[in-house]
Amino acid sequence: MVDMRTVLAGTTLPNPVMTASGCAANGTELNRFFPVAELGAFVTKTVMRDPRSGRPTPRMAETPSGMLNSIGLQGPGIDAFCEHDLPWLEQQGARVVVSVAGNTAEEFGEVVQRLVGSPAWGCVVGVEANISCPNVANRGLVFACDPVSSERVVRIVRARVPAEVPVLAKLTPDVTDIVTIAGAALGAGADALTMVNTLLGIVIDTDLLRPRLAGVTGGLSGPAIRPVAVRAIWQVTAAMRSGTLPTAPVVGVGGVRTGTDALELVAAGASAVQVGTATFNDPSAPRRVLTELEAEAARHGVERFADLVGIAHERMVRP
Amino acid sequence: MVDMRTVLAGTTLPNPVMTASGCAANGTELNRFFPVAELGAFVTKTVMRDPRSGRPTPRMAETPSGMLNSIGLQGPGIDAFCEHDLPWLEQQGARVVVSVAGNTAEEFGEVVQRLVGSPAWGCVVGVEANISCPNVANRGLVFACDPVSSERVVRIVRARVPAEVPVLAKLTPDVTDIVTIAGAALGAGADALTMVNTLLGIVIDTDLLRPRLAGVTGGLSGPAIRPVAVRAIWQVTAAMRSGTLPTAPVVGVGGVRTGTDALELVAAGASAVQVGTATFNDPSAPRRVLTELEAEAARHGVERFADLVGIAHERMVRP
Amino acid sequence: MLQVGGELIASRRAGAYHHLTLVAPGVAELAAPGQFVALAVGGATSATLLRRCFSIHRVTPSGTYGGTVDVVVAARGAGTRWLTSLRVHDPVDVVGPLGRPFPLPTEPVPCVLVGGGYGSAPLFWLAEVLRERGCPVEMVLGAASEDRLFGVLQARRSADGVTVTTDDGSAGHRGWVSDVLGDVVDRLGAGVVYACGPMGMLRSVTEVASAHGAVAQVAVEESMACGIGVCMTCVLPVRGGDGVTRMVRSCVGGPVFRGDRVRWDAIGDGVTRVPEDALGAPHPGGH
Amino acid sequence: MLQVGGELIASRRAGAYHHLTLVAPGVAELAAPGQFVALAVGGATSATLLRRCFSIHRVTPSGTYGGTVDVVVAARGAGTRWLTSLRVHDPVDVVGPLGRPFPLPTEPVPCVLVGGGYGSAPLFWLAEVLRERGCPVEMVLGAASEDRLFGVLQARRSADGVTVTTDDGSAGHRGWVSDVLGDVVDRLGAGVVYACGPMGMLRSVTEVASAHGAVAQVAVEESMACGIGVCMTCVLPVRGGDGVTRMVRSCVGGPVFRGDRVRWDAIGDGVTRVPEDALGAPHPGGH
Ligand SMILES: Cc1cc2nc3c(=O)[nH]c(=O)nc-3n(C[C@H](O)[C@H](O)[C@H](O)COP(=O)(O)OP(=O)(O)OC[C@H]3O[C@@H](n4cnc5c(N)ncnc54)[C@H](O)[C@@H]3O)c2cc1C
Ligand SMILES: Cc1cc2nc3c(=O)[nH]c(=O)nc-3n(C[C@H](O)[C@H](O)[C@H](O)COP(=O)(O)OP(=O)(O)OC[C@H]3O[C@@H](n4cnc5c(N)ncnc54)[C@H](O)[C@@H]3O)c2cc1C
Ligand SMILES: Cc1cc2nc3c(=O)[nH]c(=O)nc-3n(C[C@H](O)[C@H](O)[C@H](O)COP(=O)(O)O)c2cc1C
Ligand SMILES: Cc1cc2nc3c(=O)[nH]c(=O)nc-3n(C[C@H](O)[C@H](O)[C@H](O)COP(=O)(O)O)c2cc1C
Ligand code: FES
Ligand code: FES
After folding, report:
1. Cβ count within 10 A of residue A232
2. Cβ contact (<8 Å) for B57 and D271?
3. Per CATH, the architecture of A6-54+72-198+221-314 is what?
4. Candidates C231, C272, C277, partner chain A, best to mutate (most A CBs within 10 A)
5. What is the H or E stretch that residue D81 is in?
6. Rounded CA gap, C67 and C69, in Å?
7. Mean pLDDT of A147-154
8. Once rounded to an integer, what is the mean pLDDT over residues B305-309?
9. Which residue in B64, B223, B317 is closest to C271 by CB distance?
């Protein structure tokens, strides 16, 4: 039996597989297919301060080996989340990473403040700042597209989360240089990085000759984008290995459907892996990926999952 | 019969379908499957000044609905190109878009100078500056990731190409803001934009636990990236429509496999479409896409192909 | 709700549609009329990741093969074409039963069941269940043309009366189901109108039902990515018991809704807008 | 070179492999031993876009079905698993024949044909063609284990002598084909050694052939994205007649090369490097 534990900036998780924010709602639905407490952690749908209706529909389009979504962060707001969702997850014995966002950097702070005050706060093993969302104060530019905005949000979130709970900054791949953004987030106190959020995309309905999504653009996810996720993880962990960036755990996400997919992200440098879109294809995907990843680790003869993290950097062939 | 002609900055092409650079070699191979002269234009493999061996192998990895490649611009060099490849294409009666690159901005200029002096120059209907390649003078940063480098290259190329032949700048989608790069290229005199080149990706071999490509990173192409290509075309042509960017034709490329795929790019704003990776699946793909696109145009009841260009911007539903 | 590795055991044409029978042990046993199944498509090398949802046409809880589920599929895009080209004994992964079934009346009130196109698929089973409870049942089936009607013969067995309409007049009355529905409701003194079909039809059915004193229970068909409530793609605006409009997931909050609760004013032209008075609707100057 | 919509008409196990017969009219008529076909995989909803290449095992230019092509497939990844799970009458898109065939000697010199694993597939047809030209032919077949040998029985019909080796000794001599090849070449006084199999084997075959005075003609297996010469993924360093090493496309310049022309020094550990002296090799301070 391989020791599947992984350490996320001080917090030890029993295994490295998580749900991806927004692809697993807040747990009740998937719990009918497998006990969500069996995952390394359960990542909740990004929650904002106020209740949000989200965008008009159509909100999704299938794409080759992926999909486009534009949900618009529909959700109940942080108060309802603390009252209903978090206690339910605590009751299940789940370790929870709460994904938070705000329309402004300050709003991130408000959300975190209310979250930390929740009676169920005890089950929270991490706060994921979804900075891949639009900054209303900066012409709607995505926070994570700009190092200064990224830094501001992470600093505010880090300041409000108790020191023993790690803060993860979730980055978008839609930037010229993700290492700079990663550096800004780490500099501001992020304990770990979640990479990557969706890529911006558009699908045109060729019957109606208009964008298929009511919101025009959407986020591209699924196996189609896995090589981009692996590349982003590789670039950032390579920068850590070379000393250009401070070392911190990376949580990989993007296109994981099987245990070997997860292993790709891990070998590229991820200490944990989230399963998103694949859940729509197979509701048991996160749990299955864990079983398959365990089998992969055993096949490679390692004693500890941790031995696989970033291993591809060491095995690279130098031409 | 729909009038399939399209205008590329002064040059009228009989139809809007082209090969994509590097996915069709220089014509002899595909000509066994269909006459390359039937395409709107034939886009050659990017040629540099000197002969290049390209990268070590493995140079490719299949990915979900796409592939990763790292050819490293293998090629015969501009002199051999002008002596063998271009005259052959001229003989076939093909309209040729020559893709050029350099390790430095100046090298682009040298390549173009020799190209323009070629006896077969007459068949050239466009010069595509592949600025999505590394700039040796700037730490290997891709020219098209930086507006200043992009501008420099385009200015040099535009200065050396006779005025009646359009210069196309080929952009990478791997940037935070493609509209800025497009603006730089147009400002420097580009007559048209080709969008998009591949996305940077990595695939890990989960048996060997190392990157599958000998060159580690590669370019992601194929249907997987189509939503990103459509989005890039949409953003740039939306900026043109709103007056933020000067108006210029866009040649769309990325994930086109069928006529409806091509129509997606066209409806998003592309005046012409290149077919790349799909050719590996179906050697007749560029020609077939033309037939299918013609049928789509007929189905939509337009008289001129040009009526479909950018039509999705007009039909957008305002919520 | 189960996920089972099923198997296709019968596939036959039915007009413009394909009628598929799948072995899906366990699913049949749990299902009620109005629920649906979500099928994986494309096999091991598939580029089409999302499941396709189909109303359960009928179930056979046990039998030679274990429980089976029948669905009626219109081949449209990549996934439905794949499903309809499967051969007997091919494997099909099934998740179901999903969604809220048609609510049944506690009293034996007369009911009208309205199906548009393949939307009639779940109604025959519903009709049987209603008649078992003593409800008189009539059906109204409509489609663009005769080949797009599903189950007219079955309807004659399952219901006490059947009215057929087609847009082109190739079968039954020329016109829409809503043209004839009012009369049927009145004649029968129906208390409930159940309907399944395109959104435009469900809206008119709701209007006609209300105008004629009946409650409409409509099964909507929103584009779904997951079918199990985790993706939030399938929402539509529905007024709750508290009068507040929310963007409700049709896969878990539906697919069956009371017609008069659906905010039809926000739905049209292939787009569903967020009503300004919906909970959490965007407001000027920020979200 | 053709692209045809083919059809699978027979599929059977052969040890660890699957032996497929495809109708591919026109392809069979044009093919010569050593050429290959590129098959599309995964069907209409496929996420696997690239074709898979297979040596032509044999062809039947005409017959009940029109020309057929046989290939021997080892199920490894997604595409080969898809191919080997097809059923008779399933469609398969075929491009071929591709590549340069084995060059035939102009004189009736004795030849040794060496196959590693499924690499023996193209050799039986080659043996027949060589014997028609009067060449004495012996075969050496090697594999990891007995089930990974292909065509030992056929070899006994196609050749004047057959030597078998397996790594684990489960059939024939324990060891590698290169262990026994020298003796066979000497005994036969062979002028040409034809070989098809893994790169490591082709390298040793080349060395043994040279040491024993024979020319090696080896069919390489490089990872290919297009198979028709347009993608440049399948290159390997080969010394030309002019002594210059170039990165040559193995799909159009090969797959058969003279063994002593291949720059084995650059190949190994799953990677093929660009020799420093190759045309256009990168040099310090620029490309
Ligand atoms: C509750 C419910 C019950 C349904 N019952 C039936 C039925 O009994 N018979 C039948 O033929 N069809 C039914 N549909 C519609 C059916 O799900 C779609 O026609 C089908 O998913 C389209 O798949 P495709 O591969 O043909 O199309 P594609 O365009 O390739 O589908 C792409 C994606 O969009 C989704 N999608 C596209 N159109 C629809 C749609 N109309 N509804 C939901 N998702 C859609 C697909 O699920 C898939 O994720 C039902 C839909 C729902 C939601
Ligand atoms: C000229 C030639 C002749 C061949 N003859 C045979 C044969 O007779 N029998 C047989 O079983 N196999 C043969 N192969 C190898 C066969 O092409 C690969 O095993 C097969 O492509 C792998 O596909 P997959 O779906 O199993 O693997 P995947 O890993 O899914 O393949 C992914 C991609 O890599 C390419 N690829 C992977 N491995 C190889 C490889 N070894 N060679 C070429 N491309 C590869 C595939 O074409 C595909 O594009 C031959 C290869 C070449 C080049
Ligand atoms: C329908 C959908 C909703 C999503 N919602 C969120 C969200 O609320 N917050 C967030 O950080 N990421 C969200 N994501 C992004 C995923 O968490 C993940 O980063 C991305 O989808 C890539 O992973 P995948 O390919 O495994 O899906 C969403 C993705 C999808 C498909
Ligand atoms: C094998 C391969 C080689 C390529 N070589 C070049 C090249 O030399 N120059 C260039 O501008 N683009 C090159 N490209 C990028 C394509 O021209 C095209 O922009 C990209 O692949 C996206 O289109 P597609 O999805 O249709 O392939 C190459 C792509 C592939 C797959
Ligand atoms: S389809 Fe995913 S929530 Fe309804
Ligand atoms: S496989 Fe494409 S050039 Fe050889």
Report:
1. 32
2. yes
3. Alpha-Beta Barrel (3.20)
4. C231
5. helix D78-84
6. 7
7. 94
8. 98
9. B317
B23 tagged catalytic: no
Burial D18-37 (b: 16+ CB within 10 A, else e): bbbbbbbbbbbeebbbbbbb
Report pLDDT digits (tens) over B12-30: 999 999 999 999 999 999 9
For A245-281, the pLDDT digits (tens) are: 999 999 999 999 999 999 999 999 999 999 999 999 9
> What is the fold of D102-221?
Rossmann fold (3.40.50)
Contacts of A184 (CB under 8 A, 6+ apart): A147, A148, A150, A151, A154
Using CA atoms, how far apart are residues D250 and D218, in angstroms rounded to an integer? 11
Omega before D101 within 30 of 0, i.e. cis:
no
Q: Which tokens sit at A318? A: 């130098």
Q: What pTM value is reported for the model? A: 0.96
* ipTM score for this prediction: 0.96
Measured CA to CA, the distance from residue A62 to residue A280 in angstroms comes to 11
Q: Would you say A259 and A16 are in contact if contact means Cβ atoms under 8 Å apart?
A: no
What CA–CA distance (Å, rounded) separates C157 from C152? 9
For chain C, give every domain's residue range: 2-98, 102-221, 222-287
How close is the Cα of A284 to the center of ligand 1, in Å? 22
Q: Please give the C-alpha separations between residue B185 and each of B6, B143, D167, in angstroms, as whole numbers.
A: 22, 11, 60
DSSP calls for chain A: --B--EEETTEEESSSEEE-TTSSTTSTTGGGTS-GGGSSBEEPPPB-SS-B----B--EEEETTEEEE-----B--HHHIIIIIHHHHHHHT--EEEEE--SSHHHHHHHHHHHHTSTTGGGEEEEEEE-SSEEGGGTTEEGGGSHHHHHHHHHHHHHHS-TTS-EEEEEPS-SS-HHHHHHHHHHTT-SEEEE--PEEE--EETTTTEESSTTS-EEEESGGGHHHHHHHHHHHHHHHHTTSS----EEEESS--SHHHHHHHHHHT-SEEEE-THHHH-TTHHHHHHHHHHHHHHHTT-SBGGGGTTHHHHHPPP-
Do A235 and B205 contact (CB within 8 A), yes or no? Answer: no
Neighbours of D244 (CB within 10 A): 11
Closest atom of ligand 4 relative to the B130 alpha carbon: 11
Question: What are the residues facing A19 on neighbouring strands?
Answer: A275
Choose the closest CB to C50 out of A75, A214, A280: A280
CATH of C2-98, one of 3.10.20.600, 1.10.340.30, 2.40.30.10, 1.10.760.10: 2.40.30.10
What percentage of chain B exceeds 70 in pLDDT? Answer: 99
Cα(A153)–Cα(A161) distance, integer angstroms: 12
In what helix (H) or strand (E) does residue D272 lie, and over which residues does it extend?
Answer: strand D271-272
Eight-class DSSP state of C253: T
Residue in the block written with tokens 């990168």: D282
The crossing angle, in degrees rounded to 10, of helices D199-211 and D177-188 is 30
| Type of residue found at B283 | P
Phi-psi region at B157: left, alpha or beta (left = phi > 0; alpha = psi -120 to 50): alpha
Q: Contact at 8 Å (CB) between A101 and A130?
A: yes
Distances (CA, A) of B151 to B102, B119, B155, B249, C214: 14, 29, 6, 18, 69
- As a whole number of angstroms, the distance between CA D172 and CA D190 comes to 22
Looking at A23, A82, A133, A145, which residue is catalytic? A133
Q: Which pLDDT band, with edges at 50, 70 and 90, does A24 fall under? A: very high
Domain limits of chain A? Answer: 6-54+72-198+221-314
